[in-house]
Protein backbone atom coordinates (compact mmCIF):
# COMPACT_ATOMS: atom_id res chain seq x y z
CA UNK A 1 0.00 0.00 0.00
CA UNK A 2 1.30 3.43 -0.95
CA UNK A 3 0.54 6.32 1.40
CA UNK A 4 1.52 9.87 0.51
CA UNK A 5 3.18 11.49 3.53
CA UNK A 6 0.37 14.06 3.81
CA UNK A 7 -2.12 11.28 4.63
CA UNK A 8 0.26 9.47 6.99
CA UNK A 9 0.86 12.79 8.78
CA UNK A 10 -2.89 13.49 8.94
CA UNK A 11 -3.55 10.15 10.66
CA UNK A 12 -0.72 10.72 13.14
CA UNK A 13 -1.92 14.29 13.85
CA UNK A 14 -5.42 12.96 14.46
CA UNK A 15 -4.02 10.42 16.93
CA UNK A 16 -1.97 13.09 18.73
CA UNK A 17 -4.93 15.47 19.06
CA UNK A 18 -7.12 12.93 20.88
CA UNK A 19 -4.35 11.22 22.84
CA UNK A 20 -4.67 9.16 25.00
CA UNK A 21 -7.97 8.06 23.41
CA UNK A 22 -7.99 5.98 20.26
CA UNK A 23 -9.08 7.72 17.07
CA UNK A 24 -10.53 6.28 13.89
CA UNK A 25 -11.18 7.16 10.30
CA UNK A 26 -11.37 6.01 6.73
CA UNK A 27 -9.13 6.27 3.69
CA UNK A 28 -9.99 6.19 0.02
CA UNK A 29 -7.67 3.84 -1.91
CA UNK A 30 -7.27 3.72 -5.68
CA UNK A 31 -4.94 1.20 -7.29
CA UNK A 32 -3.20 0.49 -4.00
CA UNK A 33 -2.55 4.19 -3.29
CA UNK A 34 -4.28 6.28 -0.62
CA UNK A 35 -6.00 9.24 -2.30
CA UNK A 36 -8.27 10.57 0.48
CA UNK A 37 -8.43 10.80 4.28
CA UNK A 38 -11.54 11.13 6.47
CA UNK A 39 -11.67 11.51 10.22
CA UNK A 40 -14.59 9.72 11.85
CA UNK A 41 -15.74 10.35 15.39
CA UNK A 42 -14.97 7.63 17.92
CA UNK A 43 -18.44 6.95 19.33
CA UNK A 44 -16.93 5.63 22.59
CA UNK A 45 -13.73 7.59 23.29
CA UNK A 46 -11.32 5.40 25.23
CA UNK A 47 -7.59 4.69 25.36
CA UNK A 48 -8.40 1.01 24.78
CA UNK A 49 -10.96 0.80 21.98
CA UNK A 50 -12.77 2.60 19.23
CA UNK A 51 -16.10 2.40 17.48
CA UNK A 52 -16.72 4.50 14.41
CA UNK A 53 -19.77 6.69 14.76
CA UNK A 54 -22.32 4.65 12.76
CA UNK A 55 -23.81 7.61 10.86
CA UNK A 56 -20.41 9.09 9.94
CA UNK A 57 -19.17 5.61 8.98
CA UNK A 58 -22.11 5.08 6.63
CA UNK A 59 -21.94 8.55 5.03
CA UNK A 60 -18.17 8.35 4.54
CA UNK A 61 -18.30 4.81 3.19
CA UNK A 62 -20.89 5.92 0.65
CA UNK A 63 -18.77 8.92 -0.38
CA UNK A 64 -15.66 6.77 -0.80
CA UNK A 65 -17.48 4.13 -2.83
CA UNK A 66 -19.30 6.73 -4.95
CA UNK A 67 -15.89 8.19 -5.86
CA UNK A 68 -14.85 4.75 -7.14
CA UNK A 69 -12.33 4.15 -4.36
CA UNK A 70 -11.87 1.21 -2.04
CA UNK A 71 -12.31 2.02 1.64
CA UNK A 72 -9.57 1.31 4.16
CA UNK A 73 -10.07 1.87 7.86
CA UNK A 74 -7.65 3.21 10.43
CA UNK A 75 -7.44 3.64 14.15
CA UNK A 76 -4.74 4.44 16.66
CA UNK A 77 -3.03 2.53 19.42
CA UNK A 78 -1.61 5.11 21.79
CA UNK A 79 -0.06 2.72 24.31
CA UNK A 80 0.64 -0.46 22.36
CA UNK A 81 2.19 -1.68 19.11
CA UNK A 82 0.62 -0.82 15.77
CA UNK A 83 -0.74 -4.34 15.40
CA UNK A 84 -4.30 -5.71 15.61
CA UNK A 85 -5.44 -6.55 19.12
CA UNK A 86 -7.65 -9.55 19.81
CA UNK A 87 -10.61 -7.14 19.87
CA UNK A 88 -9.59 -5.59 16.53
CA UNK A 89 -9.41 -9.04 14.98
CA UNK A 90 -12.75 -10.15 16.43
CA UNK A 91 -14.58 -7.02 15.25
CA UNK A 92 -13.08 -6.81 11.74
CA UNK A 93 -16.04 -6.76 9.37
CA UNK A 94 -14.45 -6.08 5.96
CA UNK A 95 -12.24 -9.05 4.97
CA UNK A 96 -11.13 -7.56 1.62
CA UNK A 97 -10.33 -4.08 2.92
CA UNK A 98 -7.25 -2.88 4.75
CA UNK A 99 -7.12 -1.92 8.39
CA UNK A 100 -4.36 0.50 9.27
CA UNK A 101 -3.12 1.04 12.78
CA UNK A 102 -1.11 4.10 13.74
CA UNK A 103 0.94 4.49 16.86
CA UNK A 104 2.91 7.55 17.98
CA UNK A 105 5.92 5.45 18.97
CA UNK A 106 7.49 2.06 18.41
CA UNK A 107 6.54 -0.47 21.09
CA UNK A 108 7.77 -3.97 21.80
CA UNK A 109 5.40 -6.92 22.21
CA UNK A 110 4.87 -6.03 25.88
CA UNK A 111 3.69 -2.47 25.14
CA UNK A 112 6.97 -0.97 26.31
CA UNK A 113 8.06 2.02 24.25
CA UNK A 114 11.33 1.25 22.47
CA UNK A 115 11.55 4.12 19.98
CA UNK A 116 10.30 7.58 19.15
CA UNK A 117 9.42 6.96 15.51
CA UNK A 118 5.71 6.73 14.70
CA UNK A 119 4.34 3.52 13.23
CA UNK A 120 1.78 3.04 10.46
CA UNK A 121 1.03 -0.56 9.53
CA UNK A 122 -1.64 -2.12 7.27
CA UNK A 123 -3.40 -5.46 7.65
CA UNK A 124 -6.03 -7.64 6.03
CA UNK A 125 -8.16 -9.44 8.60
CA UNK A 126 -10.30 -12.33 7.37
CA UNK A 127 -12.02 -14.70 9.80
CA UNK A 128 -9.32 -14.26 12.41
CA UNK A 129 -6.42 -14.56 9.97
CA UNK A 130 -4.18 -11.47 9.93
CA UNK A 131 -1.94 -10.68 6.98
CA UNK A 132 0.33 -7.64 7.04
CA UNK A 133 0.68 -5.55 3.90
CA UNK A 134 3.77 -3.46 3.29
CA UNK A 135 3.31 0.30 3.64
CA UNK A 136 5.37 2.65 1.49
CA UNK A 137 5.23 6.32 2.44
CA UNK A 138 5.83 8.64 -0.52
CA UNK A 139 6.55 12.36 -0.72
Strands ordered across the widest β-sheet? 3-2-4-5-8-9
What's the mean pLDDT score? Answer: 94
CATH topology: Cytidine Deaminase, domain 2
Helix content: 10-25%
Distance between the first and last residues' Cα? 14 Å
Question: What is the count of structural domains?
Answer: 1
Layout of SSEs?
Elements: E1 2-4, H1 5-18, E2 24-30, E3 33-40, H2 54-66, E4 70-76, H3 86-91, E5 98-103, E6 106-107, E7 113-115, E8 119-126, E9 129-133, E10 136-138
Parallel strand pairs: 1-10, 4-5
Antiparallel strand pairs: 2-3, 2-4, 5-8, 6-7, 8-9
Protein model, in words:
It is a single chain. The strands form three sheets. The chain has a six-stranded mixed sheet. Strands 1-10 form a two-stranded parallel sheet. It has one domain: 3-Layer(aba) Sandwich (Cytidine Deaminase, domain 2), CATH 3.40.140.10. The longest helix has 14 residues, at 5-18. It has helices at residues 5-18, 54-66, 86-91; strands at residues 2-4, 24-30, 33-40, 70-76, 98-103, 106-107, 113-115, 119-126, 129-133, 136-138. By secondary structure, it is α+β, with helices and mostly antiparallel strands.
Concise account of the structure shown:
This protein has 139 residues and is an alpha+beta fold. Helix content is 24%, strand content 37%.
Please describe the structure with a list of short key phrases separated by commas or semicolons.
139 residues; alpha+beta; Cytidine Deaminase, domain 2; six-stranded mixed sheet; two-stranded parallel ribbon; 37% strand; globular
Amino acid sequence: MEIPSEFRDAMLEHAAEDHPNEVCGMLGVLGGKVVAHYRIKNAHPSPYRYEMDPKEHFVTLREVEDAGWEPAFYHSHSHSPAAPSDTDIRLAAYPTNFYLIVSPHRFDGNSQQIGEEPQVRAFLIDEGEVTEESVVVTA
